[in-house]
Amino acid sequence: MATLNTVTSSTRPASPATGEAYFETDTNKIIVWTGSEWTEIVSDYAPSYSNQYSVDFDGTNDYVDIGGSYDLGTFSAWFKPDNVLSSSVGPYMICGFTGVDPYAVYGGITVSGPITGALTDEIIAIYTGDWLYGYTSSTATISNTAWHHVAVRWAGSDYEIYLDGSQVKNADGQFGSASKSKIAISNLSIGRRNDNGKFFPGLVDEVAIWSTPLSASDVTDIYNSGVPTDLTSYSPNGWWKMGDDDSGSGTTITDQGSGGNDGTLTNGPTFSSDVPS
């Protein structure tokens, strides 16, 4: 079957042949040149989600500075580490944030290696302050030859952790006397902990946060069998596509969520064309 070439309403060919047809990506219509004018045919076809860029962090001092304030209902990100991750290396921060109590000054979501002594053999953990929620295993590893998806969601009484679409949390630990609760965070960053430590080495893409928890099925749908999908219908409060809305250039990562908190590439992370697919 022939491929239907794509254009936008502003890039229609100036001198097409009669009967020539295109799919118009900004109007979701098929357009056909009759010989004297374009005829538009409404279509329910839409091309697959376009994802062309990720951000490459050197693991030394690179990060994306975002800021903003959110309730930590759900977090989602894609990552591809430079090295095989296990409980014996790291930890490395996918994101860092400041919490609402003094124990969470340097909270965040970490992959590989224990962030504290409260849990051992951590592969993934979310540190919210008084509580540390973890996926622990002395034998599990996360490969460096493929992209992976990590998500956390507040489930009403606990934070759940998902790796590549499957729930994996199997342990948690407590510091102090606070009860488990969904927390408010601020000063979000990607690729580091906010005390300028635990920098992530590798690629990160399609980072999103919701103040309202998504359902478990939504998290699975966002994983989408290993291929990023359009998050618009999920109404994220923050959504950083890591270059796709910024032509893979400059130092700004535009926020496509409702929060309007653009990120700034800091200390030299670079754009990459290596993306989940």
Short description:
The protein is mostly beta strands and 277 residues long.
Features:
single chain, mainly beta, Jelly Rolls, 2 domains, 8-stranded antiparallel β-sheet
Order of helices and strands: EEEEEEEEEEEEEEEEEHEEEE
> Would you state the CATH class of the largest domain?
Mainly Beta
Radius of gyration: 21 Å
What is the CATH-assigned architecture of the largest domain? Sandwich
Shape: elongated
- The CATH topology name of the largest domain reads Jelly Rolls
Are there runs of 5+ residues with pLDDT below 50, and where?
Answer: none
Q: Helical stretch count? A: 1
Q: What is the CA–CA distance across the termini?
A: 23 Å
Mean pLDDT over the residues: 91
Structural class of the secondary structure composition? mainly beta
Order of neighbouring strands in the sheet with most strands? 15-11-10-9-8-16-6-20-19
Task: Tell me the β content.
Answer: 35-45%
Number of strands: 21
What's the helical proportion of residues? under 10%
Number of domains: 2
Question: What composes the largest sheet?
Answer: 9 strands, antiparallel
Describe the 3D structure.
The protein has a nine-stranded antiparallel β-sheet with strand order 15-11-10-9-8-16-6-20-19, with no helix packed on it. Strands 5, 7, 12, 13, 14, 17, 18 and 21 form an eight-stranded antiparallel β-sheet that branches. Strands 1-2-3-4 form a four-stranded mixed β-sheet, with no helix packed on it. The chain is 3% helix and 39% strand. The longest helix is centred in the last third of the chain and has 8 residues, at 216-223. The radius of gyration is 21 Å and the shape is elongated. With 277 residues, it is mostly beta strands. It contains one helix and 21 strands. The chain has two domains: 6-42, no CATH class; 54-272, Jelly Rolls (Sandwich).
